Sequence to fold (261 residues):
Amino acid sequence: MIVTTSPKPDDALRETAKRLARFLGARLVPRKKRSIARLMREEGTDTVLVVTAEGPRLYRAGVERPFVYHPNTAMIRMRHLLRGDTDPMVELMEIRPGDRVLDCTLGLAADAAVLSLAVGEGGEVVGLESEPLIAAVVAEGLRTYSSGSAAIDAALRRIRVVCADHLDYLRQCADRSFDVVYFDPMFRRPVEASSGIGSLRPFANPAPLSPEAVREARRVARRMVVMKERQGSAEFARLGFAEVHEVGNSVAYGIIRVDAP
Ligand SMILES: C[S@@+](CC[C@H](N)C(=O)[O-])C[C@H]1O[C@@H](n2cnc3c(N)ncnc32)[C@H](O)[C@@H]1O
Fold:
């Protein structure tokens, strides 16, 4: 893969491109007014990350739309929270200001953004993403996206993005070091209407959640381990989530409550 910029980059874009190329261990190439198809052909690659003033755009040969950061469903959910309304996920997790939440499957960080707003300045959301390309695009988006709301932008900036496989990361966490540990793996059967996640899918880690990761999460969580899946998914029973709450028409949250010590 290669990293490049939009055709007329300023110094800030050049610096961002350099930083992302270093993070990804990718070649940085000058754009020279070339189209994406021509870049792929001339540079012999099928994956191009283009750093633009509107954020990075990730192109892959054969994939119709580039992957870009956007807050997806988070914006409307965060506006509800700011109005004093509730969010079903925040309610189920019993989130309080000051909580620490480990989001083991960051993706577009829509859930992480809602959680970050809910835990507030005194809390912390750490978001783990195993795929460096997704981590790079989303971390950059969280750093620069402008929503028009200072409270929402601050919540996006506070999310700590870590590029790591969640099992590796969980194994290094102390017992009971996060209030909630959350998993939202790629659904075994995708929800077609979920177009926000559609653009992420070609770049995402499709692996099912492992029982080992759930076991580690139980050790690391102080209050509960939560998994989002499709309603009726066999994953809940396979992974030991006995308490399941359906929300809306398609998704459900499985909860494992962690006993007090
Ligand atoms: C369904 S998406 C999560 C969507 C996210 N909850 C949101 O609100 O945008 C799942 C994400 O988890 C990542 N992932 C899957 N397995 C992982 C693992 N073992 N460690 C870290 N990230 C993982 C995928 O690459 C993908 O980006």
